[in-house]
Structures are given as structure tokens and as C-alpha cells.
Automatic annotation (TrEMBL):
Residues 244-456 form the Histidine kinase domain. Residues 184-236 form the HAMP domain. Its EC number is 2.7.13.3. InterPro entries: 2CSK_N, HAMP_dom, HATPase_C_sf, HATPase_dom, His_kinase_dom, HisK_dim/P_dom, HisK_dim/P_sf, Sig_transdc_His_kin-like_C. This is histidine kinase. It is found in: Membrane. It comes from Bosea psychrotolerans.
Length: 456
């Protein structure tokens, strides 16, 4: 399900806000009812007091005169019913309606009792007060109850409540608008970034500008730019591979074509065989170029799925030496191997490591004059594996020892080779977290290559 950042942020803001408004509506309703009750109670009490003042003993008879002012207090457009009841200390009803509700408890002294009840079909709010009557016959408290229907009070509640509800809704509305505006402003850089990404040329890996962006977004942009840079590196490597491959294969292909043409034209069998042999040699050289290029592409960062595993480096070295044994035999070179057998394990890539050793050994065998000697030594140091390959050939002048690692850079123009061997070695060593140094063999002449790899 697509998720909108703006929607989510707004949801988190507005849903709790709406909950708060609902809660507030309830509390303001409660407080509006309390306020309206207070106002009604004051009027009821004032009216009851006016009536109570008129309760008098008249020659042994308690009488109550209801002054109109006591009832006029309730005059309002709501036409509320006002009812009352005055009961003498003897318990006799002396004024008002007999069926006005009696308070839940009798008022004492001057403390009024407020209560709600029903009068016929209406809800009422009432007050009861006690009025002491001094009489010759019987003294005591008269009871005055005044009640009113609730139309006026209910209208007051609604008015008070609606007003505060309206104010609050207005406030929340303004807050929501401000939040929307803030959100829009806050998300603007992100949206701008999106449009920039959508609008740019699909092949472009130009880094994105991180100015004007919030600090929270900067790491994202940095990560994207980092990814762009890595992709750019891969693309550059790929392009270089294609360029190298086509460049390296064009000349041998042209030579092959010429040899084939010459062979076809020649009528003598011997000449044809000679052309075929030349083509065969040319094909071998081309196969080697292709192989070296592929190994290099695999060894480059990100070139191969570099799944490393625990490997036995002594076994790998031995296999590499065996693969070049024929070359040593052909050139009558004494190839010796000396290595600690156990504990030469490291995390690595078998094929690449074998290519690394094979390339170094092959160089030593090829550039050493016939009858020379090449010795390979493997030793284990704390946390490291050391591989050294020595020959007693011409060696590499110090000034060239850095450049020979460059692609296609060769010193011995007389011999065959692609100039990729040491470039491959350097990539593989780097991919395994090691390092390589070339130096002069002691005693000279000769070359010594030292590789240090981290052991597992
Ligand atoms: N053991 C060595 N003794 C003397 N010169 C060497 C030795 N190893 C390498 N070189 C010089 O360094 C150059 C680069 O070696 P590198 O292995 O990269 O390429 P290459 O051997 O010419 O070609 P490739 O190995 O790809 O077939 C060689 O051409 C050679 O001149
Ligand atoms: Mg080589």
C-alpha cells in the first residue's frame, strides 16, 4: 500500500487533535451545565428568601403572602414555569401547589437544599429553605420550596457550550491550517528533490545538492550520492573493460585475418600448414588476452560477486605451481616450493588467489633466462601469511617497479604478453586486504615479489 509522508504526519497531528476536541466538548458541556445551574440556583434562592420573609404568624395562624417580585425574577423569553409550596411548621400547606416535590433531606438552619425533581410532565430544579416562625401557639420552621422548569437553564447551557465549542473548533481549525502550511513548507525541499530526480537525464549520476535540506535528510542525500559515485565507478570500469578488450583484440584479429587470407591464397600444402600454425599461435595469444581481461574484470572492486570463504592457501599455491610446471620444464628452470603446511588458511576467493600466484610464477619463469631458478616460499606470521617468489632473471629496475602494475605496461617487448598480469595481481591482493612489494633479489640479479595477506 503506498504511504504518503504528508498524510501520515497530518494523521498523527489531526487525529489526536480531533480526540482532544471531543474530550474538550464533553468537559465544556459539563462546565456549562454547572454554570447554568449556579445561575438558576441563585435566582431560586433569592426568590425563596423573598417568599420566606413573608411567612408570618398572624394571631396563631401562620400565613404566607407571595409577593409578585418573587416570581418576576424568573421572567424570561423561555416562559419557564415557576412553582412553589410553603408548609407551616405544623405541616399544613399554606401556599402553592401540594404536589411540588419535597427535598431529599430537610434544610437545616439557613442552609438551603438544592435538588432536581419532576413536576407533573416536566423536569424541575428546586430549592428548599427553612424559615423560623415565631408563634404564640407553636414555634418552629416553615418550609419554603421554589422550583422552576428547565427551559431557560437548558438554553443557557446550549449557549455557553456552543460558544466555547465554536471557539475551540476555530482554534483547532487554525492549528490544522498552520500545520498543513508548515508541513508543506517542511516537505518542500524533499518534493523539490523528487522533481529534480525525475527531471534529470536517466543516465546522469551527478551528485544531488544537499544545500537547503534539513539535517535529517542530509544523510539520505549523502548515501544516495555515495551510491551514485559507486555506480559511476562500476560504469567506468565496465567501459574501460570494453575499450581494453576491443583495443587488445583488434590487432590480433587483423593479423589472423591476414594469415588466413595468405593461407587460402597459397597453393602449396606446406605454406598452408605454416599459415594454419601461425593462426593457431595467434588464437592462443588471443585466448590469453581474453582470459587475462576477464580475470582482471572479476578482480576489480565490484567486478565479481566476491563471496569469500575459508581457503587453504598452501593448496592454492601448489595448484598454481602445478599449472605452470610445463613452462618450467620447457625452459629448464628449477622451480622450488617451500611452505609451512598447516595454518595457512585465509578468507578468500580460490580462483582469484590461484590466478594471483600463477601470474607471479609465470612472470618469474618467463623473464628468467633458460636454466635459471625460481623459488616460492610460504610462511606464516602472527595474523599474516607471507608469500615470496624469487627468480634470478634480469629483475625490474627500481624506477619501473611501480609502473609495471599499470595495465598494458610492459618492459620486455621481445616476449609475448598482454601487460595485464601484475595489474591483476595488484587487484586481487587489494581485494583480499593484503599488499605486494617488488624488490631486488639478494644476491642480485633477480626479482623478489613479496605478498602479505591477512590470515583467518
Ligand atoms: N619476474 C620478472 N622479472 C623481470 N621482469 C618482470 C618480471 N615480472 C614482470 N616483469 C616485467 O613487468 C612487465 C609487466 O608484467 P605483467 O605480468 O604485468 O605483464 P606481462 O607479463 O607482460 O603480460 P601478461 O602477464 O599479462 O601476459 C613485464 O612485461 C616484464 O617486463
Ligand atoms: Mg605476466
Amino acid at each position: 500500500m503506498p504511504r504518503s509522508l504528508r498524510g501520515e504526519l497530518l494523521g498523527w497531528l489531526l487525529i489526536p487533535l480531533a480526540g482532544l476536541v471531543a474530550f474538550n466538548a464533553w468537559t465544556t458541556y459539563r462546565s456549562a451545565v454547572a454554570t447554568a445551574n449556579l445561575i438558576t440556583d441563585r435566582t431560586l434562592l433569592a426568590s425563596a428568601r423573598v417568599i420566606a420573609e413573608q411567612v408570618k404568624d398572624n394571631d396563631g395562624r401562620v400565613e404566607a403572602l407571595i409577593p409578585p417580585s418573587a416570581l418576576e425574577m424568573f421572567a424570561s423569553p423561555d416562559r419557564d414555569h415557576v412553582i412553589y409550596r410553603v408548609i407551616a411548621p405544623s405541616g399544613e400547606l399554606i401556599a402553592g401547589f401540594p404536589d411540588v416535590a419535597i427535598p431529599p433531606r430537610a434544610p437545616t438552619d439557613l442552609q438551603p437544599v438544592h435538588f432536581e425533581a419532576r413536576f407533573r410532565v416536566e423536569d424541575i430544579r428546586a430549592v428548599a429553605i427553612a424559615q423560623p416562625v415565631v408563634s404564640k401557639s407553636a414555634g418552629g420552621n416553615a418550609l419554603v420550596v421554589v422550583a422552576t422548569s428547565l427551559r431557560g437553564r437548558d438554553r443557557l447551557v446550549t449557549e455557553l457550550w456552543l460558544r466555547s465549542l465554536r471557539d475551540q473548533t476555530l482554534l483547532v481549525g487554525i492549528a490544522a491550517l498552520l500545520a498543513l502550511f508548515g508541513l508543506h513548507r517542511g516537505l518542500a525541499p524533499l518534493l523539490r528533490l523528487r522533481s529534480e530526480l525525475l527531471a534529470r537525464d536517466p543516465g546522469s549520476l551527478r551528485p544531488l545538492a544537499a544545500e537547503n535540506l534539513q539535517t535529517e535528510l542530509k544523510p539520505l542525500i549523502d548515501a544516495l550520492n555515495h551510491a551514485f559515485a559507486r555506480i559511476q565507478t562500476y560504469i567506468t570500469l565496465q567501459r574501460r573493460f570494453v575499450a581494453d578488450a576491443s583495443h587488445q583484440l583488434r590487432t590480433p584479429l587483423a593479423v589472423l585475418k591476414t594469415q588466413a587470407t595468405v593461407g587460402l591464397r597459397d597453393t602449396e600444402t606446406a605454406a598452408k600448414t605454416e599459415a594454419l600454425a601461425a593462426i593457431d599461435g595467434g588464437l592462443d595469444a588471443m585466448a590469453r588476452v581474453v582470459n587475462q581481461l576477464l580475470v582482471l574484470a572479476r578482480a576489480e572492486p565490484g567486478g565479481a560477486a566476491m563471496r569469500k570463504e575459508a581457503v587453504d592457501f598452501a593448496g592454492i599455491t601448489r595448484a598454481a605451481l602445478e599449472s605452470r610446471a610445463m613452462l618450467a620444464f620447457d625452459r629448464r628452470i628449477d622451480l622450488s616450493f617451500e611452505g609451512d603446511e598447516a595454518g595457512l588458511e585465509l578468507q578468500g576467493h580460490v580462483t582469484l588467489l590461484r590466478e594471483m600466484v600463477a601470474n607471479l610464477v609465470e612472470n618469474a619463469l618467463r623473464y628468467t633466462p633458460e636454466g635459471g631458478a625460481v623459488s616460492v616460499r610460504l610462511t606464516r606470521e602472527p595474523g599474516e601469511i607471507h608469500l615470496s617468489i624469487e627468480d634470478n632473471g634480469p629483475g625490474i629496475p627500481e624506477a619501473e617497479r611501480e609502473r609495471v602494475f599499470e595495465r598494458f605496461y610492459r618492459l620486455s617487448s621481445g616476449t609475448e604478453g598482454t601487460g595485464l598480469g601484475l595489474a591483476i595481481v595488484r587487484e586481487i591482493v587489494a581485494a583480499h586486504g593484503g599488499h605486494i612489494t617488488l624488490s631486488q633479489r639478494t644476491p642480485p640479479p633477480g626479482l623478489r615479489a613479496d605478498i602479505v595477506l591477512p590470515a583467518s
